[in-house]
Amino acid sequence: MNFQVELTSEVSDFILALPVKFQAKIQRTINLLCEFGYSLPEPHSKKIKSAHKIYELRIKLGSDICRLFYFHWKGTIYVITSGYIKKTDKLDKREIEKAEKIKLLFED
């Protein structure tokens, strides 16, 4: 089954500001989400326990780690809300809150 992935303008700008190699790895991971949807396993995707129905795409290039937050919207559509370069072992709580706020805009 093929899934559709939509990017918010914020995450599109974030991705375009990254080095080309990172953009390529991100595109590969998004393609995996398109192909596997909800069954995309770790290390590519993981449910965020502290957030309601928010998941993260996990991309690593060398020592750099990128996290893109997404949620299931309608039918076969996933929306990637935001992303950041992870600098510590823990997820940034502010980034999760930002993803949740964007998700609420889609639910209205």
Annotate the secondary structure layout:
Elements: E1 4-7, H1 9-16, H2 20-36, E2 45-47, E3 55-61, E4 64-72, E5 77-86, H3 93-107
Parallel strand pairs: 1-5
Antiparallel strand pairs: 2-3, 3-4, 4-5
Q: Could you give me the name of the CATH homologous superfamily?
A: RelE-like
Q: What is the tally of beta strands?
A: 5
Which strand order spans the largest sheet, edge to edge or round the barrel? 1-5-4-3-2
User: Topology as H/E string?
Assistant: EHHEEEEH
CATH fold-level label: YaeB-like fold
User: Quick one: CATH class?
Assistant: Alpha Beta
Q: Can you tell me the residue ranges where pLDDT is under 50 for at least 5 consecutive residues?
A: none
Describe the structure.
- It is a single chain.
- This protein is 37% helix and 31% strand.
- It is an alpha+beta fold.
- Strands 1-5-4-3-2 form a 5-stranded mixed β-sheet.
What's a quick, concise take on this entry?
The chain is 37% helix and 31% strand. It has three helices and five strands.
List keywords for this structure.
single chain, 108 residues, alpha+beta, YaeB-like fold, 5-stranded mixed sheet, 3 helices
